[in-house]
Amino acid sequence: MQPRVIQRILGLLLMVFSFTMLPPAGVGWFYGDIGVRPFINGFLVTLGTGLLLWWPARHNRRELKLRDGFLVAVSFWVVLGLFGAIPLALAVHPHLSITDAVFESVSGLTTTGATVIVGLDRLPKSILFYRQELEWLGGMGIIVLAVAVLPMLGVGGMQLYRAETPGPIKDAKLTPRIAETAKALWYIYLGLTVACAVAYWLSGMDPFDAISYSFATVSIGGFAPHDASMGYFDSPLIESVAIVFMLLAGANFGLHFYAIRRRSLRPYLEDSEFRTYATVLALLAVIVVGYLYLNRYFGSFGEDFRQGLFQAVSIGTTTGFTTTSYHHWPGFLPALLIFASFIGGCAGSTGGGIKVVRFLLLIKQGLRELHRLIHPNAEFAVKIGRRPVDDRILDAVWGFFAAYVATFSLIMLALMATGLNQITAFSAVAACMNNLGPGLGAVGDNYAHINPVAKWLLCFAMLFGRLEVFTPLVLFTPGFWRR
Amino acid sequence: MQPRVIQRILGLLLMVFSFTMLPPAGVGWFYGDIGVRPFINGFLVTLGTGLLLWWPARHNRRELKLRDGFLVAVSFWVVLGLFGAIPLALAVHPHLSITDAVFESVSGLTTTGATVIVGLDRLPKSILFYRQELEWLGGMGIIVLAVAVLPMLGVGGMQLYRAETPGPIKDAKLTPRIAETAKALWYIYLGLTVACAVAYWLSGMDPFDAISYSFATVSIGGFAPHDASMGYFDSPLIESVAIVFMLLAGANFGLHFYAIRRRSLRPYLEDSEFRTYATVLALLAVIVVGYLYLNRYFGSFGEDFRQGLFQAVSIGTTTGFTTTSYHHWPGFLPALLIFASFIGGCAGSTGGGIKVVRFLLLIKQGLRELHRLIHPNAEFAVKIGRRPVDDRILDAVWGFFAAYVATFSLIMLALMATGLNQITAFSAVAACMNNLGPGLGAVGDNYAHINPVAKWLLCFAMLFGRLEVFTPLVLFTPGFWRR
Ligand SMILES: [K+]
Ligand SMILES: [K+]
Question: Which residues are noted in the entry as K(+)-binding (chains A, B) (predicted)?
């Protein structure tokens, strides 16, 4: 542990982050909002705190060690989540409690997109823009986390993506790798955002909405500047654009990188995670559309298809945009969609959930166990593509799954102890841990009316989900703090 | 695969099983019931079918191979479940559909104890006795399955209990071991039943109830000859007796064996599974009693303690006796109790659920993954007691857990597709897969009023839970049927 180095980094982080409160202030000034001041104050407080942290530690330029990585990753979301809440807490309209401000901020930065605000359409543009921006920044953080940090830390089997460095590496130096990998992928992230915004604009959104929705789409965040979410436009064209960019944003950004460099679609077709991702979403869409049609829910196949496909992709990728109140859909559809969000996006994307590659590994391992029962003496290697996967990685994936289920169950029970009913508690934890957003029951439309303790618990759920459970859990082990 | 040998065994099994329909007929005759005939007819049909199966294959006396073990284990519960339903389907009172008769029979033989019958107090004694007897017989089957069959088959890591035979064994011959181990443990099972019946009788039950309840207690079944279950007696003494015998029946029968042979309680104290079992149940009881007391649910601590302790042990061991409508208890208590039933009884007991030893291994493996993140190069062995556990067993336990969760989710979604609401579907699958019995929502009191498709799905859930998921799953793999 190198507390001074971490202090220096957090200070820098806050100073950089403080500047993200200026664009919303600019938006507010441009639209003549009443709400510019909270952002200026938020900027000053965050910048000042960052400066105070950074100044005394500014000469501690040693490189990060493995353990520091865990602390920095968790601090990133916790500290920014708290400071990001400042403008929301200071704003007069909406009038949010500290709890609500933190919930909204954490929800944005973790790209969950669960909101406690009702009446978005009447809010100042500055606030609306800030919420979208938080998601977009959170998405940038996730790209680094998923592609550069977690593989180095070995969390939940993600050393799978560290295949070029053979074997577990001793206290690897994180900094150069983060910078180099992150830069390439951020360009892709930025490019996707621009392309998405332009496409939305060409499809009929005004520039403000086009930028706002593109932030929430590419980050798989799902915040919207309108209460009706994507349903506000009632436009099949806009929904089609959203589907395409949600699918792209839910895929491994490393694949986009290779596809661009090689100018070929083959990296997608050759990647077994991507194939599984496409298969799962297609299957989900078929079931949802079919069930809606059999129940004649919207009255025409066209409408069943349109709504079913959009919701399947939006929930399946854990984006969480809605075009309709899917939590009122008949039978098992709401529960099915919530279950699908557990699979979530691909590793190395901004999507949430358990991640497709882990889901794939769990299935392959399950099949291996079945084979082993029939052939107790044979050896079966679990493979991804043509490469056998190391036992250590498989252990980590099993462990991740069990820890995910355990965390889910405990938070669900705790929510029920605060008075939430079972459906609300179940869907709220799922929607928050999977960084999905909209739930069922009392949190079907928003999270405004649940009790404050439940909101704090759900902040934990969002952070645990986003940080892949083990990253924050490690901090709770005594061994982590021992020399 | 040796179809003729399996046919011979199933024939023998049915012939033996047919005789279990005579005691209920005797009970009916003794009490002057109207319902003797269905049992006589059931006896004749079952005996006849058994004879027809056995006769042409009677010379195929070869020993069972590994794969045959899976088929025999599954057939045992499926075939006996179907034939066991005959007297229930033939009876005039209660008037059950085929679906209901099979559900009740499977529920008995898997020691689930979920019932579709309302108005037990008005039923003929023969039917009541038969239901209890089915559970008791099911319990005998489970002892063999858990102690002799599953360890040999290696299902779900249960080769843990095959420690004395080093390494995976090649097509082990099952027969001699089953007979030898089963005999010793059946004596214990029988002894526990007699002791339990006598204790119930001395505590104030009439002889019929004493025997009936002892059958359901020692088998962790939970059927009762009264609608009010254990609450019929409203007797703290009887409930105390029940608690003691539920605790004993939920422990590994191998421990009882060693304790009796050594005339010492040390085998219990030295067994880490038993210690975890006791800890989990104690913790559960403390939370339940404490929460009831804080909510002043029964108005006095004495009553909160009595009801809370009984329900914690009854649900925690997966027995499923009730003294009160626990599904109406406040807040998270009903969900907590259902979650606790997932942990279930000890391996080698008649209890259901995932089993305490697997739960313990999952926790230890989770902790190992945490340690590995901090110390990527160190080697940690997961140990039970002082013995390190083989990686192959750990894989099997992870796999078991994932398969359990997957099966649970799929059946839950399927139930919701048949029209059950989420709470009912969730608790019904949990209560059936964990072989617990009573659920929440529409299945809080009984399973009479859900649709037939749901009942069949729940029969599957009971069988999958009882056969530890992998045993029936193996039969669905093409590899199993290939030479
Ligand atoms: K989201
Ligand atoms: K039971």
Answer: 111-112, 220-221, 318-319, 435-436
The owner of tokens 């609608």 is: B227
Give the minimum alpha-carbon distance from B101 to chain A in angstroms, rounded to a whole number.
27
The phi and psi torsions of B93 (rounded to 5 degrees) equal -135, 110
Q: B239 in the Ramachandran plot: left (φ > 0), alpha (ψ -120 to 50) or beta? A: alpha
User: ω into residue A87 within 30 of 0, thus cis?
Assistant: no
Q: Which of A351, A349, A452, A347 is nearest to A400 (CA)?
A: A347
Beta-strand relationship, B383-384 and B387-388: antiparallel
DSSP B388: E
Distance, CA of B231 to CA of B241 (rounded, Å): 13
- Which residues of chain A are within 8 Å of residue B412 when distances are taken between CB atoms? 335
CA distance B157 to B169: 14
d(CA A98, CA B257): 60
Encoded amino acid at A383, one letter:
K
Q: Which residue has the tokens 């406690």?
A: A116
Query: What ipTM was reported for this prediction?
Result: 0.87
Instruction: Determine whether the annotation assigns residue B14 to a binding site.
Output: no
Token pair of B400 as six digits: 């078991």
pLDDT tens profile A396-427 = 888 888 899 999 999 999 999 998 988 899 99
Q: Which of B376, B403, B405 sits opposite A168 (nearest CB)?
A: B376
Say which residues have a Cβ less than 8 Å from residue A270's Cβ, sequence separation at least 6: A385
Q: How many CB atoms lie within 10 A of CB B242?
A: 27
8 Å CB contact between A47 and A16? no
Spell out the residues 6+ positions from residue B121 whose beta carbon is closer than 8 angstroms to its own.
B225, B226, B227
Which of B66, B406, B474 is nearest residue A370 as measured by Cβ atoms? B474
**Residue A226 vs residues A23, A447, B31, B330: alpha-carbon distances, Å:** 20, 15, 72, 37
Which residues lie across from B383 on neighbouring strands?
Answer: B388
pLDDT digit string, tens, across residues B49-81: 999 999 888 887 777 777 888 888 888 889 999
- Cα B202 to Cα B211: distance, rounded to the nearest angstrom: 12
SS3 content of chain A, % helix, strand, coil (to 5): 70, 0, 30
Are A150 and A41 in contact, with CB atoms under 8 Å apart? no
Strands A387-388 vs B383-384: parallel, antiparallel or unpaired: unpaired
Helix, strand, or coil (residue A387) = strand
Phi/psi of residue B387, each to 5°? -95, 125
Contact A376 B332 (CB under 8 A): no
Q: Write down the domain spans for chain B.
A: 389-481
- The dihedral of CA A217, A219, A222, A226: what is its sign? negative
Q: What CA–CA distance (Å, rounded) separates A332 from A135?
A: 30
Partners of residue B335 in chain A, C-beta under 8 Å: 412-413, 416, 422, 425
What does each C-alpha distance from B93 to B89, B96, B97, B119, B122 come to in angstroms? 10, 8, 12, 10, 9
Please give the distance, rounded to the nearest whole angstrom, from the Cα atom of residue B89 to the centre of ligand 2: 22
DSSP string, B29-80: HHTT-S-SHHHHHHHHHHHHHHHHHHGGGTT--PPPPHHHHHHHHHHHHHHH
SS3 A384: strand
